[in-house]
Amino acid sequence: MLNLVRTRTQPRSNRSMPLVAMDYADPKKKNNFVGKILMAAILTALCILMLKQSPDFNPPTAFSRHEPGVTHVLVTGGAGYIGSHAALRLLKYSYRVTIVDNLSRGNLGAVRILQELFPEPGRFQFIYADLGDAKVVHKIFSQNAFDAVMHFAAVAYVSESTLDPLKYYHNITSNTLTVLEAMATRGVPTLIYSSTCATYGEPEKMPITEETPQLPINPYGKAKKMAEDIILDFHKNSNMSLMILRYFNVIGSDPNGRLGEAPRPELREHGRISGACFDAARGIIPGLKVRGTDYKTADGTCIRDYIDVTDLVDAHVKALEKARPGKVGIYNVGTGRGRSVKEFVEACKTATGVPIKVDFLPRRPGDYAEVYSDPTKIRNELNWTAKYTDLQESLHIAWKWQKSHLNGYALSVAVATS
């Protein structure tokens, strides 16, 4: 019978097989390695998601870099009446524009109009921010490559300034300091500062020249002068290009009917006389209140120099074009002709075709009798002259915008989103 059991002729070796000769991996270590890779991928994805959601995460855009042949202008207060018209002019002339506005006085509707008119990438952007927050302001300057700043942002009602002066010193003087500090930190070379004839107060001589002493008589004018002083003191040791434009009473609107003046209802009492005239013509208020009929003028009412907003923004653009490193330019922006309040009211009646009821009341605190400019310097140095000097025509153009925007920019916004 055949025996199938093998017998060992030599003793079994006690040596074990070396591990390096094994042809398989430890399953526990393999799973651990895969888990680490998976965890790293998850953490990386979470970090990217958090960065994208963070306000500090801003991928590079056309606004964040300087581009040869393109001037990037920051327009503070660009959603407001004058600022929006200035932004429109800059965009029309192929500037790159960033508006910063907290919309306390401005209109988002005006911003949307600009967005519709200039939708091309890298042309226009709006940033909702308050210039009173220094941290936010410096962040905006760090994330955008500005070549110039047009600083319009300000509360700007004389009567309101007498009631709440601290608001004016904070909003005008302090905020201008913050903007100037951010410009200096980031090396922005040009500032066009929107100032006012209110810094002159009530001069003894007319017309007002740039050499007329600045003796403001209300907090609005004082706050603006303080801001000017800060800018000029800074400039003594700076190579910044600086233009200060002191302008007079602004009226009118975009001749093509795209932009206009739409103050908030609660501010109508403090607003411009043109707004009050239009409100009276529309029946929003029962009549027009003329404050002060005993001034030392021909008809007893205040005399002002009314400058059309189209001319005003033209002056700002020319100031930007003429700005030079290390140079300061200070200019009055007006027509050189004074008109009384009574003249203005009659022109408004004719422009609107409405027999506006007028109530004559005592003087308003902080007002002055007569103010009009001598525009010789700006004509000679910037080649600027007011063109829209027909008071009735300027009011007629503004009235057309008012009639087609009975709810301010609300109608434009509804059309844009439909």
Automatic annotation (TrEMBL):
SUPFAM superfamilies the UniProt entry points to: NAD(P)-binding Rossmann-fold domains (SSF51735)
A GO term, aspect molecular function: UDP-glucose 4-epimerase activity
A Pfam family per the record: GDP_Man_Dehyd
KW Magnesium (keyword) present: no
Transmembrane portions of the chain: 33-51
UniProt-listed InterPro entries: NAD(P)-bd_dom (IPR016040), NAD(P)-bd_dom_sf (IPR036291), UDP_G4E (IPR005886)
GO BP term, pick one: galactose metabolic process
Record protein name field: NAD(P)-binding domain-containing protein
Entry similarity comment: Belongs to the NAD(P)-dependent epimerase/dehydratase family.
NCBIfam families membership: galE
Protein's organism: Solanum pinnatisectum
Cofactor: NAD(+)
Positions of the NAD(P)-binding domain: 74-389
Top-level taxon of the source organism: Eukaryota
